[in-house]
Amino acid sequence: MDLSKNTLPALILMDIGLPDVDGITLIKQLRANLKYKSIPIVVQTAMAMVGDRETCLEAGAVAYLPKPVALDVLARLVADYSRRMRDEG
What we know:
Layout: H1 3-6, E1 12-15, H2 23-32, E2 41-45, H3 52-59, E3 63-66, H4 71-88
C-alpha cells in the first residue's frame, strides 16, 4: 500500500538543492496542485545565498532555515504547524 496516495503530511520539509528539480520550481508545483496547496513547506539549505529566503517565501514556503538547522527552531516549527493542522482539521 502506498501511503503517499492516501495520506497527506502535516508539513513538508525540503531542501532547495535537489538533484532532479530546482527546489523553487518544486515549491511552485506543489502550490499549484490542489492536493498539496495548503500543506506548509519549510525549506532548509546549506547553500544559502543572498535573496534565497525571499525567493522561497515568495514561491510559497512558510519558513526558510539555513543549515545547520537549529533543532529547537525546527522542533518549534513542526509543533506549531502540527497544532495548526490539528486545530483546523
